[in-house]
Amino acid sequence: xxxxxxxxxxxxxxxxxxxxxxxYLLAIIIGGKSAxxxxxxxxxxxxxxxLAEMSEEELVNLGVGRKSAxxxxxxxxxxxxxxxxxxxxxxxxxxxPQDVANLFEDLKYKNQxxxxxxxxxxxxxxxxxxxxxxxxxxSCIVHPRDIFREAxxxxxxxxxxxxxxxxxxxxxxxxxxxxTKRLVECGKMMGIExxxxxxxxxxxxxxxxxxxxx
Length: 214
Known about the structure:
By secondary structure, this protein is an alpha+beta fold. It has two domains: 85 residues; 119 residues, Cytidine Deaminase, domain 2 (3-Layer(aba) Sandwich), CATH 3.40.140. Helix content is 48%, strand content 16%. The protein has eight helices and five strands. It has a five-stranded mixed sheet, sandwiched between helices. The termini are far apart.
């Protein structure tokens, strides 16, 4: 076990933390005798998205020690705080669909579909972000009035929105396209432009602007 841990640390130092396999990072977080190849392999096989959703009890039931489970949950919490601080930064500017996807990157860790809107000033700085609803996307649920009422309250010049597909596949559905078209039309009437609507998948995103729907 000691040799296993040493090799992991050497690999992380040599290749960098971003290029270190998830299994090895988990071994470092867990530490001690619990960080064996079998348990870290099982956890890594779940993927970071599933791990981020797991409770301490669920990890313990998989055979992870209580203290190790606490460390994993705390580490995933740190990721959440980091992503939140990044998206809450009012200096964040939307210049491209990639900027929209980066802003809503944390959505891919949610296990239930969530529709969110970011409100922008005249320079396309993000001034606020709001969850509009949680659940399966339906054109009857996403009411433009709720979005544009908030946009007017914030004196927003434009908006961008995003939601994720828990399946991991960001391909737009008929409902996705219908909702986008409604928001575009309402935005034109209100003088508040919808710049983009991105669908977030597990490893990629799709911009409905790039698809020609915005």
